[in-house]
Amino acid sequence: MELRQLKYFVEVGRLRSFSLASKSLFITQSTISQQIQKLEEELGVELLIRDTRHVTLSDYGEQFYPFASQVLEEARAGAERIRDVKALKVGSLSVGATYSFGPLFKRTVLDYNRQFPNIRLNLLIASKEELRQKLLDRELDLALTYKSTIGDDRIESHLLFPSRLCLVGREGELKGVGSEVTVQDLSRFPLALPSRGLQARDTLEDVLFAQNVDLDIRLEINSIRYLLDLVGSSPLVTVLSEEVIHQAEGFEAVPIAHPASRMDGCYHQIKGAYHKLAARKFIELLKENNGGPQ
Fold this sequence. Notes:
Blueprint: H1 3-15, H2 18-25, H3 29-43, E1 48-50, E2 55-57, H4 59-85, E3 92-97, H5 105-115, E4 120-125, H6 128-136, E5 142-146, E6 155-161, E7 165-170, E8 190-194, H7 199-208, E9 216-221, H8 224-232, E10 238-241, H9 242-246, E11 251-255, E12 265-270, H10 277-290
Parallel strand pairs: 3-4, 3-5, 8-9
Antiparallel strand pairs: 1-2, 5-12, 6-12, 7-10, 7-11
Helix pairs in contact: 1-2, 1-3, 1-4, 5-10
């Protein structure tokens, strides 16, 4: 029994198609078919039910499939451990972050690249739902979001740093505001807000739930970078996590006094999977740069 035979079987079983598996693996259909037949001969059972148009798992195949998948996962984990032993001199790391979290990337990415120049970073900015799916599809090693969970029992979540949703303006724009602002205070300001679906905006909606507050919303935008550019050059104010403002010059931030205003930074990984040393080093730098627990 060979790993490639298990790989071909799992891919055909996953896609229910020799043609699609051939394209996915960049292997000819005849090679895939021959190797799976050898595997079936060794096991003495038929793993796949084939006809001219469809491929399905047999009863034996249904039972064998999860074990074959686990063997491949263990083999991948072993290969990752070998790469780690090479002291991070080769490899890659795929990291995703939500749009609201994205501005916290810059310092850590530059520091990481300086310390580990031979590790290729693949960075993705996407919604929390997209990050969750890409983690499950093993397209990401690490996902970064605000809030402590990502909504899936197969994913484990850990704290990076504590943070809160804040009212944010250019320096001097929030003059006279106290150490905190209430939900009612928000109605006094012309607001430029993150678009719905971004985590800072979702947190604001949680804060506003069941509150009778009429906000003066002048514009909405789905880019935190351009939002900060607009706020930094106008009387408009916005709401963002305090951690974003710590890494931006020329702004001041006042926390919003509400239990739902927590925006703790968190990282997420597949539960029970082997986690690359490259990912652990990235997390260490994130905590160092953002004041999180070491």
